[in-house]
Design goal:
This protein is α/β, with parallel strands linked by helices. It contains 11 helices and 18 strands. The protein has 2 domains: about 110 residues, Urease, subunit C, domain 1 (Roll), CATH 2.30.40.10; about 290 residues, Alpha-Beta Barrel (TIM Barrel), CATH 3.20.20.140. About 30% of the residues lie in helices and about 20% in strands. It is globular, with a radius of gyration of 21 Å.
Length: about 400
Amino acid sequence: MAIALVALGLLTSGVSELLLRNVRPWPSTHESEPVDILIADGVIRGVGSGLAAPGAVEDANGAMVLPAFTDFHTHLDMTRLGLPFRPHTGGPTLADRIQNDLDNWRSGERSVADGAIYTLGRMISFGATRVRSHAQIDPDSGLERLAGVVAARDAHQQRCKVQIVAFPQTGILKSPGTEQMLDEALRSGADLIGGLDPQGFDEDAEAHLDIIFGLAQTHGVGVDIHLHDRGEVGAQQIEMICARASELANDVTISHCFALSSVDERRANSLVDAIAAAGVSVATVAPGTFAPMPLEQLRERGIGFGLGQDGMRDYWSPYGTGDMLDRTWQLAFTNGFRRDDLIEACVDTATAGGAALMGINNIGLEVGDVADLVVLPGDTVTSAVMDRPQRQLVIQDGAVVARNGQLV
């Protein structure tokens, strides 16, 4: 491979540099040859053979390199990762699981902040350097959970970029006082406003959405709404969200969006049209209990699509490890993908796809791209999804932040 270098200012004194030797960028075949990647000031400055730099050198010995992962939908305030395993006590409905969390979240063996800091560190060690986390705002917890996620963001600010969504998990209309607390949360560290099943849970979609989008307008922030409602009830709410999104200057995301996979094909196509026209993005956690979202159709229409791990080992579910490669495998598996190009598309969703929705562009492996990278052994990108090997290096903004599964 010919050497590719940025010409201006590459070796000026004071520039922070890192040279990755013998790495295979996004290998789709066994025949992919190793190259060197030169990083300076958090940006890829050169990709080629025989590169030299006076800075630090890491020899990957032929391992692959991918863009670092983006967890676009998680709940750092709820996690029990790192604590003794606890039998699941939640009931089968959404309301049951919400109540199970309310009944138990204060009984953990550590603070929300300690749990969030631990879990975010674990996620980083697996290669996630960008995370969007929801933080529950309700009359019981007040802003305590938000404060815990803010503490995690601050503790790992040199290792990971974190966005926080003020999330009314117990409803807004059903929990008087929540609207005022959401307003305060947006003044106290939250980056976006969230919502939850405006019709199915709060039982008044118009009023719920009026509050959410009113707060978004007031604070100049984006919106990320959990929409579990299925069928036509969910479909109508998608249309309502898209109508409001068209009038909002900031980004809007529908998380879960189960209605897309629970209406007939003609209706689903009309919803995809509405989402595309409104510039709304979609997030999934690749659940195994419902039909998957039409990933290929969303990508073809240019609709932003992100992947996340949701809750991890919490009062909702015993699942979750902190590893985005696990969830990427789940996305491919639940979609029934076998071809390498489709599995690689899942990796793209789990890396650059979510990053773009967080406003972080130029995520890739070319000269000029942001140097947020993960180095790991394996034959091909698909093999990494299947095997999920230990990460050798995690690099954020050009600096090594984890090595062999341990933070540095």
